[in-house]
Each structure stands twice: as C-alpha cells, then as structure tokens.
Amino acid sequence: MKLHILSDLHLSLGAMAQPTTDADVVVLAGDIARPREAAAWAQGFGKPVVYVLGNHEFYGRSLDGARAELKGLCQGTAVHVLDDEELILGGVRFLGATLWTGFELFGPGENQAAAMAAAQRSACCAISASCAPTGRAPSSRRRMRPGCSSGTPRGSTSGLPRPMAARRWSSPTMPRRRRGAG
After folding, report:
1. Phi, psi (5° rounding) for residue 41?
2. Are residues 14 and 95 in the same domain?
3. Do 91 and 112 have their domain in common?
4. Is 8 found in the same domain as 94?
5. How far apart are CA 59 and CA 152, in angstroms?
6. N or C: which end of the chain has fewer CB within 10 A?
7. Domain match, 33 and 94 both
C-alpha cells in the first residue's frame, strides 16, 4: 500500500491545493486546519484519508467539541478520523490517537506546573510571532488563541486525563497483532 503523509499544513494561515498523488491512502497527521476547513480539504482527495487530529485542530474550541465536529463532518465520507481508534484499510492496520503531553515527566508539583506554564507561554508566543515580523499578530489572528494572556487557553491540555486516556488506549493496542496478520 502506498501512503501520502501530510502534517503541520496550518491551512488557516494560507490556502493550499491538495497535492496530486498516486497513493492508495492519504494520512493527515495533525495540524491541518480547524474542523470545518480540515474536513472540506481532506474530502477533496477523492480517496481514503486517515486523519489524526493535532493540537491546532482544537484552537479556540473545547477538545470534545472540535473532535465531535470533525468526526461529524467526515461521517459517511472517505475521511476516517481516528481518535483512540483502529481502522483496517486494504489489510493495513492504522492506529490513531492525539498524544498530548501530560507533563507528568517532571512529577506532580512545582516542576510540573512550571513546565505547563512554559508550554502555554511558548504556544501563545509562537502563534503571535508567526504572524508578523514584529511579533505582534494582526487583530484577526489574535482571536485564534483566546486566553493566551490570562489563564489556560481552550484547546490546551491543562490536566492529565486526556493524555493518560490516549496512552492507556495506545499502549496495549500497538503491540497487539491483528487476527489474520502474518
């Protein structure tokens, strides 16, 4: 099976036509666009698409809201949104999970809180800095990350439940062999 893998396209920053490909399956590995734009773009390939959400699909939305919107928009199409799910296409097993960092590497307490705060500052600054050479985003762009200057923005992972759930799903699933596989 031939795959065409794309990620980090950030189509909200500028339009891009689907590349011409002779692949059997297109894999969109996150950070493509917001759900409505992402679904329309993914459906334009006219072939099976495996889509795993990245953090940018969630900007300005709740985690559950963005996930549900993209899944709903792609339901009944050739675009398969995988969220802690498995899909078999042409005998090939695809596993998809958005593996957020849980910041548990540093353990609970002060180090973990500092790591989370640094990541939030970094994400907000990166978005602003990518918009204009001055580092100041145009007003239309600043709306993308509500809450960057105060509190935790929607779409960030402020706690551990979601990343831990994805890890609990993926850890035993990845090494498991599919029945009928050699």
Report:
1. -65, -45
2. yes
3. no
4. yes
5. 12
6. C
7. yes
For residues 158 and 64, give the distance between their C-alpha atoms in angstroms, rounded to a whole number: 14
pLDDT in tens, 107-161: 677 777 777 676 666 555 444 434 333 444 343 333 334 444 433 334 444 444 5
pLDDT digits (tens, 9 = 90+) for 75-91: 999 999 998 888 999 99
Residue 81: phi and psi, rounded to 5, are: -90, 115
Are 15 and 39 within 8 A, CB to CB? Answer: no
Domains in the chain: how many in total? 2
**What pLDDT is recorded for position 81?**
96
Q: How many C-beta atoms lie closer than 10 Å to residue 9's C-beta?
A: 19
Is 177 domain-assigned?
no
Q: Which domain holds residue 18?
A: 3-100
Q: What is the 3-state secondary structure (H, E, C) of 47-77?
A: CCEEEECCHHHHCCCCHHHHHHHHHHHHCCC
The answer, yes or no, to whether residue 74 has pLDDT greater than 80, is yes
> pTM value?
0.65
